[in-house]
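Dear colleague,

Thank you for sharing your sequence with our group. We've completed the structure prediction you requested, and as agreed, I am returning the results in plain text so they can be pasted directly into your records. Please verify that the sequence below matches your submission; if there's any discrepancy, let me know and we will rerun it promptly.
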Amino acid sequence: MIKKIALTLFSILFMSSCDKQPEAPAEPKWHDALPRESWSQFEKVDVGNSWFEVYKVTDNTYAIYEPFQWQEAISYLLLGSDNALLVDTLQGVGDLKSVVDQLTNLPIIVMNTHSHYDHVSSNYQFETIYGLDTPYTAGNAKGHSNADIGSSMTMDTIWKNLPEEFDITKYESKAYEIDKFVNDGEIIDIGSREIQVIFTPGHSPDSVILVDKANRMMFTGDTFYPAPIYVYSETASFEDFFITSQIMFGYRNDVDYLMPGHNETMQPASYLDELRAATMAVINPTTPFEQGRNRRTYNFGDFSIIVKDPLDFGINAE
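Please find the predicted structure tokens below.
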């Protein structure tokens, strides 16, 4: 009798399981690639803040990383003997200043690689801001309302660890004032550490790279990272970007590492050769690309370049 009951129960369970349809595989999400393995090579610094991850990448340089929002923006804190240079201030989600204050007691100078909101939105927290004297920079320094940029900060673009005090429905980029305008080629001396500012427009009209020759690093912002590089917005210029790639190539013997503004840090300087070659390939009308709506994507392995269609520079420009 017991055996018969057991067989009956087995039959019911088996038939029930057969009635179930297999679950559709979940669509891949942007954060499925996280955590990025490359960060594990660096010393992680506990700053008691769950929104930011802080890494000591050299004895005098910290990377402050936002891995829980799809842009994965990176800020850098460069320590000198007299001042610290904060390269970009991220998206204004967490309290960046409280993190920086734990890392150094030095006076802070902020220098942005460009004025897009995901690089300047905590500028308002700091007293000393350096920047370019351009109409584009001045316009962005006025800030951006929730109506302008709110769509970039939603529960679809954030993975986890959103700060409790942050109201996602009111996200905005606050205004800030530039205290000192810098010139192309100018040196920012933070005490026993000289950082050269080089104008490199293309991704934006006010993009710069920062070259730290003594430590053999180039801070590239959005001008280079190993991912799709955007050169297709209304204010982007591939013609400028092409020239910029040649300028950056000129520093190939002065740096060992590129320090991008998104995703991963300390990329090999050999990418400068690849970026230059890639921009030359883009202007070649025989180079294949993926066609999109009013844009085209050229793939080069670890990175791609997305430009306007028609291309705004080159043999086939209209």
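Summary note from our side: The longest helix spans residues 2-19.

Kind regards,
the structure core
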